[in-house]
Description:
Layout: H1 3-6, E1 19-24, E2 27-32, H2 37-43, E3 67-72, E4 93-100, E5 110-113, H3 117-131, H4 148-156, E6 174-175, E7 180-182, H5 192-199, E8 206-209, E9 216-219, H6 232-236, E10 242-244, E11 257-262, E12 271-277, E13 280-286, H7 299-302, E14 317-321, E15 324-328, H8 330-341, E16 349-352, H9 359-372, E17 377-378, H10 399-405, H11 415-424, E18 429-433, H12 445-450, E19 453-458, H13 463-467, E20 470-473, E21 482-485, E22 490-494, H14 507-519, H15 530-540, E23 557-558, H16 567-577
Parallel strand pairs: 1-5, 16-17, 16-18, 18-19, 19-20
Antiparallel strand pairs: 1-2, 3-4, 3-5, 6-7, 7-10, 8-9, 11-12, 12-13, 14-15, 14-20, 21-22, 22-23
Domain 4Fe-4S His(Cys)3-ligated-type: 118-157
Cofactor: [2Fe-2S] cluster; [4Fe-4S] cluster
GO molecular function, one term: oxidoreductase activity
Amino acid sequence: MSDSNTTQLPKDLAAEKGLVNVQIDGHWIQVPRGTRMIEACKIAEKEVPHYCYHPKLSSPGNCRMCLVQMGMPPRPAPGEEPKYGDDGFQEIGWMPRPVIACANTVGENMGIRTQGELVEKCREGVMEFLLINHPLDCPICDQAGECRLQEFSVGYGKGQSRFKEDKIKKPKNVKIGPRIRLDDERCIMCSRCIRFMDEVADEPVLGFSERGTHTTVGIFPGKELTNNYGLNTVDLCPVGALTSNDFRFQMRTWFLKETSSIDTNCGTGANITVWTRGNKIFRITPRQNDEVNSCWMPDSHRLNYICPTDEDRLTACLIKADGIHEETCWENALEASADALKQFDASEVAVIASGKQTNEELFMMRALAAELGTENLSIVAREKESDDMLISSDRNPNTTGAKLVLQDEYPTGKLDGIRVGVSNGSIKAIVVASENLLEEAGFTQDDLNALELLVSIHHSANATAQASDIVFPGAGPAEKRGSMVNVTGRLQKLNAACVPPGDARSDWEIIRDLVLELSGEASSEAPQSIDALSKVLATSIPEFEGKHITAISDLGDLVTETGVSIPLVQREAERKANGEIVG
């Protein structure tokens, strides 16, 4: 850290600010009192290798890899005053033995060395012990490419082993749950998985047994790791001991592209990373956002993704002729839809949008309803019980956004009236996007059969698409850009990790072209990109002012107060306040 940063606060005023002066590798910095040594080193941009430590979990000091040398001013002899140098600090007396940085906190005038012969020799010794029984199977290990043991053995190990005896064999390829496999021979006993299940998931089914080099991690007798947050232990594992059945042996991580996005399975909007190659999604992992999902996400959400290679994907426009769908081009499908919709009075048409759509798509759905002159515009409600963790009771990812964009505090309120209108024949035509009306919207097959016109937009084949007169192929959540507002009122970005298959397009493009076809306006007058549409949205909705898609921060921005909190994040904040975790 530069000198300009180390002197931001006067040395003598540190205590008044709740700070302490700490020397790290010869440079003085100021950090909050009670900061763990490993976090102080992180502030000073000094790497301290570690395995067991994780800021969201308790610090047991298992691995001993985070050893540093510590020093404090020597205690003055009776009658003597402390001696200060020209820099205003007392001379530091260095301890002849190392201390762990993860479980010790800093003090005034403390010195920390992350380098030097003592520290380096100790780390080499620790690494040598960790590798004594570890198998030399990096070329076939699923963790290769993102293995901390592999990385630190190169950076901090000896480069050779003095161990000549046979390695102790431990259980391999053990099924400990429906989604996770354990290769215990690779385990370095960091206990991250055990602490996560105990402290975060609140289901302590993992533990250590035996002693010394025979120690193994395993599931409690008669139990399985079935918890819906169990796959977070795979993310936490610094080696290849725990692997996901879904991703195991599927692809090397260095071949995959990482795209930051958000989860669309519920209103929490957990921040995620989408891992892709060749327009195929290989896995979803949580991305840290302390205001939304911390470092975690539920298994049910990470495994529930729409991939361009799925067999049920819609890839071309369809028009029904004599009860059979036939592929057609976009121009014919748009012209046919517009001509058919013009045959109905405004009161006879309904537009059903979706809480799964982005703000930009909802904005275009509002424009479509306005162009048709209908007030029958609604989204579909998805209310289920919350899991008191990260899964919201609102299973729509963008209900809050729908309230703002549709300018309706109850955006699902007109759906019942639309259903009644279909039943009694007063509503004869429906345009529906990103919804299967036969599942959660409450419509029956008879309702759909009674319609004179049904135009649908969806990414996958379903019963609504089958009943539709005209079908437009839409993009999946991982194939489009846009923004959504989660249950707490945080505006977040959805980013495209893949390209829609075939002729599929994002909903906003489809609706824009349909509106243009209905109005007869030139296409040049409409937004030609999601960025342009986002800027129009930002000037139309007061809460989004200045928050077009390129201006939204990576962790999102709070745009409205909803009074809703996320249980897991709330509990984590309490643990941090109590000093149980760094957070």
